[in-house]
Design brief:
The chain is α/β, with parallel strands linked by helices. It contains 43 helices and 16 strands. Among the domains are: 115 residues, Arc Repressor Mutant, subunit A, CATH 1.10.10; 162 residues, P-loop containing nucleotide triphosphate hydrolases (Rossmann fold), CATH 3.40.50.300; 89 residues; 80 residues, Winged helix-like DNA-binding domain superfamily/Winged helix DNA-binding domain (Arc Repressor Mutant, subunit A); 125 residues, Serine Threonine Protein Phosphatase 5, Tetratricopeptide repeat; 82 residues, no CATH class. The strands form four sheets. The protein has a five-stranded antiparallel β-sheet. A hairpin with a 2-residue loop joins strand 1 and strand 2. The relative contact order is 0.04.
Length: 962
C-alpha cells in the first residue's frame, strides 16, 4: 500500500460516531460492534449514516429516499425493509436498547446517544491559551440524543454567550435548564477547543467554598484564604467556557464569582443556570419557557400534534417506559390534555410518561387527576437526587424561601390559572401578612421562578405552574389553612363576577372558577358561596360553550340551595341556565318544564321584568322543540305582557314572537317581529350582550324571507350570519346558526355550501356534547342527500336520526324530516310507505294547529297520490289546490310556487292546455329575485316548454331536481 493510500485509510478511520457498543466509520463505510465488523447491506448502511448524521431529529421518508436512491423511483416498502434489516443486525430493542424509532406519519429518528470523535486536524478558529501543566477537560454530562423543541434556544444562547460572555438561563423547576446548558456546552466544545468545564453547584452547601470548588474542578491549586483571587489570576489569560449549574441556593456567592470573573478574566465565558437571576454586572438573562403545548386539540390529527415539542417529549419517554402503541387520531385529545395539565414542564412530562407503559395513555390521564402521583414519581436513577422527583425539586426551592414567601406561596396555591394582584391580596392578606410584605413576597416568588407574571388588558396577572401549585397546595393543607384560603378564594370570585360581569371574570381564569366550585360543593362550609358562585358563573360557562359543565354546576347549586337563597334572583339565574343547558345536552327531559315553571313563579314574585321574559323565551324554545307549537306561541305572546321590561327584554320578546309565529304558519307576522327585534337591537347598541336573541331573530328572518319569496335576500342574510360565526364562542348559538343556515342554502340549491355547513355542524355537536342536536345534524344530512340524488343513503340517515331525535324529544322539525323521508322512499320505488309517511306528517301538523311547512306537506301528498293512483284525478287536484290555497293564506310564496308547479304539471299530464299554466304563471310573476334557484328554474322550464309548444311533461315529478 502506498503512503498516500495508507494516509487515506487512516483519515477515513479517524471520523467515527460511537453509540452503545457500536462504532460507525462513515467514510470507510464500516460498522463495528465491540471491535468486530457488522454485516449490513450497502443501502442499510447508507440509511444508518443518514440517520446518525441527524441523530435526535426526525428524517422524513421522502428525504431518505431522495438522498439514498436519488432519481430512482422506489416505494416506501423498500425503505421499510432496509430499516427492519438494519434494526435486526444491530439488535435494536434487545435489552431495552433503542436505536431507530419510527415516528408515525413523519419518518425515522436515531434516538441513541451519539459521541463523535474526529481526530483529524483541528478546525477551531480560536484555540484556548495553554498553560503548563493544565489540560482542561469538559466534564459535561452526556447530552440527550434528542432534545425536543430546544434547537432554536441553543442557537440563540450560543450567539448571546459568544457576544456577551455572561448568560444566565432562568426558569422554573423541571423546565429543562440543565438539559439546555449541557447541550449548549457540547455545541460549543469545538469553538472553545475543548475548553469547556461543567461545574455542578448542588452539592456546595457552604457559599464560601464556591471559588475553591471551581478551582478544584479545574485542577488548579489556590490559596484557601482568598480562592477567588487566585482563580481570577489563573484565568486572566485563559479562554474557556465555565458552566455553573444550579446557582439558586448559593446565589449571592455565585453572583460574586460570576461578576469577578467577567470583569477580570476577559476571555472566560460564563453560562449559569438558576431559578433566580444573579443580578450582577455583565449578566444577560435568558428566560427558558415551557415546551410548546397544543392550546386546543380540536380536529387535530396524530401527525399534526406530534409537531409540538411537549408531545414529542411525552411520547418518546412513553416509548422508553415500554409503551409500544402508535398514536392514533382519537388519542390526540388525551395526550394534548396531559401536556397542558403539566404546563409543558419537561421533567413533569418525563415522569408522567413513565406511567404509560403500565397504564396506557388513558390510564395515565386518569391518574393525573391525582397530580401528587406525578410529584412523587421517580425518574432516572442517574439524575441528581433533587431531580429524581418533582417533589424533591420543588422542595429544594421551597426550603430556601423566607417565612413570608412560604406563607404567600402556600395561600396562592388555591388559584388555578391566572389571577390579578387584587385577587392575591384578597386571599393572602391578614394580620400575619400585611400588604407590603405580600407585595415583596410576590416579587421574590417571581424572581425565584415560582410565580410568573404578565400584563393582560393593562393589568398585571400572575400564574403558578400546576406542578408547583399542587405541591404548595399539599403544604397549605398541612398548615391547616386550606379551608380558610379556599373560602376567601370563592368569595372573591363571586364578588368579582357579580360586580364586573363575565368580561372581567375572564381575567380570573376559568380554571379558578372550576377549582372554587369543586371546593365549595365538597366542603360543608362552602355550600352557600358555591350556590351563589354557580349562579354568577353560569352565563359565562354558556358563552364559552361549556354547556355540559354549566348544567352540572347549576344542578349542584340548586341541590345545595339553602332557605335564604330560595325565591331570590340566585334561584332564577340557576334555573334559567339549567333549563338552557339541559335542552341542548340532555334533551327535553320532563324536569326542564318543571324548573321553568318554578323559575317563572319566582321571577313574577320578584316583579317580572327581563328575568321573566328570558324564562318565557326559554319556555318558547322548549315547547317548540317539543312540538307543542300553540303553547309555544302562547308563551311567546306572554312576553308582550311582562311588566317592567327593559329595551333588552323587548328585543328578546320580539325575537321569540317572530320564531313562534313563523313556526305556527304565519311568516308575515314572524318577519314583522324579527325586523322589530333587530331594529331595537341596533338602536340599543349592545348586540353582543343580546347575542342569543339577535341570533334567533336573524335566523328566523332568513327563513321567513325565503318562505315569502325572497330567496336572494334570505341567502345573503344567511351568509352574513355565517361570517359572524367564525369567532363565535357560544356553542348553542353556533349550533343553531349552522343548522338553520344550512336549510336556507339547501332551499336555494347551494348544495356544496350546505354540505360544508353540515360537516362543521357534525364536528361542533360532538366537540361540545350537544346530544339533543346530534340527531338534528344527522337528519339534515339525510334530507340533503335525498335532495341531491342519493335517496337510499339519505333514507338510511333519516331513519337513524329519528331514534336520536325521539330520545331527546326534539321534534320541532319532525314533519320536515318526514317529508324528506317520503321523497326518498318514493324515489326508491316504495310509494305506499312514502304516502303513509307523508300522511303521518300531515296528521302531526294538523294536531299542532297548523305548521309553517303544512302547505308543502299537502303538495307532497298530492304528488304521491298522482304517482300511485294517477286516475284518481279529483283527489289529487283537491289536495294540490288545498296546498296552493293554504300557502297563499299563510303568505308563503315559496310553498305556493311549489304547489302551483306540481298542480300545473299534473294537469298537463292529463292533456290540459294553457289554462293549466295560468295560475303557475301568475305565481311565478310575483317573484322579483332568486330566478336561478331550483324551484323557480323548474317552474320556468315548465312554462317555457308548454307556452312555446315544447314537449309534453312526462308525468309528475317530486320535489326539486338538483
Amino acid at each position: 500500500m502506498s503512503v498516500d493510500a495508507a494516509r487515506t485509510v487512516d483519515d477515513d478511520l479517524r471520523d467515527v460516531a460511537v453509540f452503545g457498543p457500536f462504532r460507525l466509520f462513515p467514510a470507510a463505510r464500516l460498522l463495528e460492534r465491540d471491535g468486530a465488523p457488522v454485516e449490513v447491506g450497502g443501502r442499510a448502511l447508507d440509511i444508518l449514516v443518514a440517520l446518525v448524521d441527524k441523530a435526535g431529529k426526525v428524517v422524513s421518508k421522502a428525504d431518505l429516499l431522495a438522498s439514498i436512491w436519488g432519481d430512482v423511483n422506489v416505494v416506501e416498502g423498500v425503505l421499510r425493509t432496509h430499516v427492519c434489516s438494519l434494526r435486526k443486525a444491530m439488535g435494536d430493542g434487545a435489552g431495552g436498547m433503542r436505536y431507530i424509532t419510527a415516528v408515525a406519519g413523519r419518518g425515522y429518528c436515531f434516538v441513541a446517544p451519539v459521541v463523535r470523535n474526529t481526530t483529524g486536524p483541528a478546525t477551531e478558529t480560536v484555540a484556548p491559551a495553554a498553560s503548563e501543566g493544565w489540560t482542561p477537560t469538559h466534564g459535561l454530562p452526556p447530552r440527550l440524543a434528542r432534545m425536543a423543541g430546544r434547537d432554536d434556544t441553543v442557537t440563540k444562547l450560543a450567539e448571546q454567550l459568544l457576544e456577551h460572555r455572561f448568560v444566565t438561563i432562568l426558569g422554573a423547576a423541571g423546565i429543562g435548564k440543565t438539559t439546555v446548558a449541557v447541550s449548549l456546552g457540547h455545541t460549543l466544545l469545538d469553538t472553545f477547543g475543548g475548553a469547556v468545564r461543567f461545574i455542578e453547584l448542588e452539592s456546595v452547601t457552604d457559599p464560601s467554598l464556591i471559588a475553591a470548588t471551581v478551582a478544584s474542578t479545574l485542577g488548579i491549586v489556590v490559596q484557601m484564604n482568598d480562592p477567588l483571587r487566585g482563580l481570577r489570576a489563573f484565568l486572566r489569560d485563559k479562554r474557556l467556557l465555565l458552566v455553573l449549574d444550579n446557582c439558586e441556593h448559593v446565589v449571592e456567592a455565585a453572583a460574586s464569582l460570576g461578576e469577578s470573573l467577567f470583569l477580570h478574566a476577559p476571555n472566560v465565558h460564563l453560562l449559569a443556570t438558576s431559578r433566580e437571576a444573579l443580578r450582577v454586572e455583565g449578566e444577560r438573562i435568558y428566560r427558558l419557557g415551557p415546551l410548546e403545548t397544543p392550546d386546543d386539540d380540536g380536529g387535530m390529527s396524530a401527525e399534526r400534534v406530534q409537531a409540538f415539542p411537549a408531545v414529542q417529549v411525552f411520547l418518546e419517554r412513553a416509548a422508553a417506559s415500554g409503551w409500544s402503541g402508535d398514536l392514533r387520531d382519537d388519542d390526540v385529545p388525551v395526550v394534548a390534555q396531559i401536556c397542558r395539565r403539566l404546563d409543558g414542564v419537561a421533567l413533569a412530562l418525563e415522569l408522567a410518561a413513565s406511567f404509560v407503559g403500565e397504564c396506557g395513555l388513558r390510564g395515565t390521564a386518569a391518574l393525573l387527576s391525582d397530580r401528587g402521583r406525578v410529584l412523587r414519581r421517580h425518574g432516572r436513577r442517574t439524575a441528581p437526587p433533587r431531580q429524581q422527583t418533582l417533589h424533591a425539586l420543588i422542595a429544594w426551592s421551597y426550603d430556601r424561601l423566607s417565612d413570608w414567601e412560604r406563607v404567600v406561596l402556600r395561600r396562592l396555591s388555591v388559584f388555578s390559572g391566572r389571577f390579578p394582584r387584587c385577587a392575591a391580596e384578597a386571599i393572602v392578606l391578614d394580620d400575619r401578612v400585611p400588604p407590603q410584605s405580600c407585595h415583596e413576597a410576590m416579587i421574590g416568588l417571581v424572581a425565584k421562578s415560582l410565580l410568573s407574571s404578565s400584563v393582560q388588558d393593562g393589568e398585571v396577572v400572575y400564574r403558578m405552574m400546576e406542578t408547583t401549585r399542587v405541591w404548595a397546595l399539599e403544604r397549605l393543607a398541612e398548615s391547616g389553612e386550606l379551608d380558610q384560603a379556599s373560602l376567601r378564594h370563592a368569595l372573591f370570585l363571586e364578588g368579582r363576577l357579580r360586580r364586573a360581569g363575565e368580561e372581567r371574570g375572564a381575567v380570573v381564569s376559568l380554571g379558578n372558577i372550576r377549582a372554587a366550585l369543586v371546593w365549595c360543593f365538597s366542603s360543608s362550609s362552602g355550600h352557600d358561596v358555591g350556590v351563589r358562585l354557580a349562579a354568577v358563573a353560569a352565563q359565562m360557562l354558556l358563552t364559552l360553550g361549556l354547556v355540559s359543565e354549566c348544567h352540572q354546576w347549576c344542578r349542584q347549586g340548586l341541590a345545595h340551595m339553602a332557605t335564604p337563597e330560595t325565591g331570590t334572583f340566585v334561584e332564577v339565574r340557576l334555573i334559567e341556565a339549567l333549563a338552557q343547558s339541559a335542552m341542548f345536552t340532555k334533551g327535553l327531559a320532563a324536569d326542564v318544564g318543571v324548573v321553568l315553571t318554578r323559575g317563572l313563579e319566582v321571577a313574577r314574585a320578584l316583579g317580572g321584568g327581563d328575568d321573566e321574559i328570558r324564562l318565557l323565551g326559554h319556555a318558547t324554545v322548549f315547547l317548540l322543540m317539543a312540538g307543542d307549537f300553540r303553547k309555544g306561541l302562547s308563551a311567546a305572546r306572554q312576553c308582550e305582557r311582562v311588566r317592567n321590561a327593559s329595551t333588552a327584554g323587548r328585543i328578546i320578546a320580539h325575537s321569540m314572537l317572530g320564531l313562534a309565529e313563523m313556526a305556527c304558519g304565519d311568516p308575515v307576522a314572524g318577519q314583522t317581529h324579527c325586523e322589530e327585534s333587530l331594529r331595537r337591537a341596533v338602536q340599543f347598541g349592545k348586540v353582543e350582550a343580546m347575542q342569543t336573541a339577535y341570533t334567533h331573530a336573524r335566523l328566523t328572518l332568513a327563513r321567513t324571507l325565503w318562505l315569502r319569496g325572497r330567496p336572494d335576500r334570505a341567502a345573503t342574510l344567511a351568509r352574513e350570519v355565517m361570517s359572524d360565526t367564525a369567532t363565535l364562542t357560544h356553542a348553542v348559538d353556533k349550533c343553531l346558526r349552522l343548522a338553520y343556515c344550512e336549510m336556507i342554502f339547501a332551499w336555494c340549491g347551494e348544495w356544496s355550501e350546505a354540505y360544508r355547513l353540515l360537516d362543521t355542524l357534525a364536528d361542533h355537536v360532538e366537540r361540545h356534547s350537544l346530544a339533543s342536536h346530534r340527531g338534528l345534524a344527522l337528519a339534515l344530512r339525510g334530507e340533503l342527500m335525498v335532495k341531491t340524488g342519493q335517496p337510499r343513503r339519505g333514507c338510511d340517515l333519516l331513519r337513524a336520526a329519528s331514534s336520536d331525535l325521539e330520545a331527546s324529544q326534539n321534534t320541532a322539525l319532525d314533519t320536515t324530516f318526514a317529508s324528506a323521508l317520503a321523497e326518498g322512499l318514493a324515489a326508491t320505488g316504495s310509494l305506499d310507505e312514502a304516502l303513509a309517511t307523508a300522511e303521518g306528517a300531515l296528521e302531526i301538523a294538523t294536531r299542532r294547529g297548523g305548521t309553517w311547512d303544512q302547505p308543502d306537506l299537502l303538495r307532497l301528498k298530492g304528488a304521491l297520490l298522482a304517482l300511485r293512483s294517477p286516475k284518481d284525478e279529483r283527489t289529487v287536484d283537491d289536495t294540490l289546490v288545498r296546498a296552493v290555497e293554504l300557502a297563499r293564506s299563510q303568505g308563503a310564496l315559496a310553498w305556493e310556487l311549489r304547489a302551483a308547479t306540481e298542480l300545473a304539471r299534473e294537469r298537463l299530464r292529463r292533456g290540459g292546455c294553457a289554462d293549466a299554466l295560468s295560475e303557475l304563471s301568475a305565481v311565478y310573476a310575483k317573484f322579483t329575485e332568486g330566478l336561478q334557484t331550483p324551484d323557480l328554474q323548474a317552474a320556468r322550464v315548465l312554462l317555457e316548454q308548454h307556452t312555446a309548444g315544447g314537449p309534453q311533461a312526462r308525468g309528475p315529478e317530486l320535489g326539486v331536481s338538483p
